[in-house]
Amino acid sequence: MELNRSLINEPPTWNEAVTRWLEDFPVFLRHDQLGTHNQKLHVQRGIELNLTLEGQGTFVVDKHIWRQSPGQLLIFPGQLPHQVYIDPSRQYTRMVVLIDDRRLSSLMPGGDCGGFEDISCRQIKLQPDTYLSIKELLFVMHRERTERRTGWQQMIAAGLMNVAVLIRRSLEDAEPKGGPHAARKMHGEHPISRLCDYIDSHLHEDLTLKTMAAMFDMSPDHLIRTFKREKGMTYHKYVLLQRIFESKRLLLRHPDMTLTEIAYQVGFASSSQFSKTFKNASGLTPSEFRSQSQTEPPL
Predict the structure, then answer these.
(1) pLDDT band, residue 145 (cuts 50/70/90)
(2) What is the Cα–Cα distance from 98 to 26, expressed in whole angstroms?
(3) Taking a C-beta distance cutoff of 8 angstroms, is the pair 27, 156 a contact?
(4) What is the Cα–Cα distance from 183 to 215, expressed in whole angstroms?
(5) Average pLDDT over all residues of the chain
(6) Is the pLDDT of residue 31 over 90?
């Protein structure tokens, strides 16, 4: 999907709708299904959270450009010029949380906003358990905001605190031990073992041979030879098998996750690619595997 550079380069507009939505309460939630558009970048007050549920979109936030897929969360200050542009070949749905941090602080324990104000601009790839927990919390908060039953403000504030904790834990878990540049230092003794450890915990990321060779300070040719010698299989086959193994675990452990969500969690570009690869490897489609496993009696 190509971005319209003329839209990105134009001065951003002020989003009046956000001002209206936040008039009576400092948290507003939207469950959106978006299509392609030609809207310019805009700005608004407060903090914005975007959780992608289905499809793919390209977010432009200030000088950053992020590709968003299911299970990814984007957080940024509203005053940064931003807009999402949708891949026209796929349906795109998301949950948006808009927070007026100045007014919310008076309602929260300790007078803060749960730590959101300290996260300047981040994209977070959520682990399956965390993604499902945050997704459920946001839908509960959205329902409370819509129905406005007794205590709905307190329910939203409590839900937001829980979301903030889960996000903080995700950020801590994503930080490599030894600092953000530790991965590049994983060479020396047992480099292939260290590489495999990295692959197993980053299946959703770019794991191309060229990328991993650069990260672990190896030439692609050397990585190919060493990996085959130590593991008895090609690098490509190892990555593929790990993605299949993890997808089977998710299919069994998380029946509420869609095939599209699982596909993106384990690094496939689409649910169709995931299904085709899964069937070639196991002889069953992901749906057949899930159904068969649910009907088999326990050992």
Answers:
(1) very high
(2) 8
(3) yes
(4) 7
(5) 85
(6) yes
Cα dihedral sign, 286-287-292-294: positive
- Beta-ladder partners of 92: 34
Average pLDDT for 76-93? 88
Written in H, E and C, the secondary structure of the chain is: CCCCHHHHHCCCEECHHHHHHCCCCCEEEEEEEECCCCCCCEECCCEEEEEEEECCEEEEECCEEEEECCCEEEEEECCCCEEEEECCCCCEEEEEEEECHHHHCCCCHHHCCCCHHHCCCEEEECCHHHHHHHHHHHHHHHHHHHHCCCCHHHHHHHHHHHHHHHHHHHHHHHCCCCCCCHHHHCCCCCHHHHHHHHHHHCCCCCCCHHHHHHHCCCCHHHHHHHHHHHHCCCHHHHHHHHHHHHHHHHHHHCCCCCHHHHHHHCCCCCHHHHHHHHHHHHCCCHHHHHHHHHHCCCC
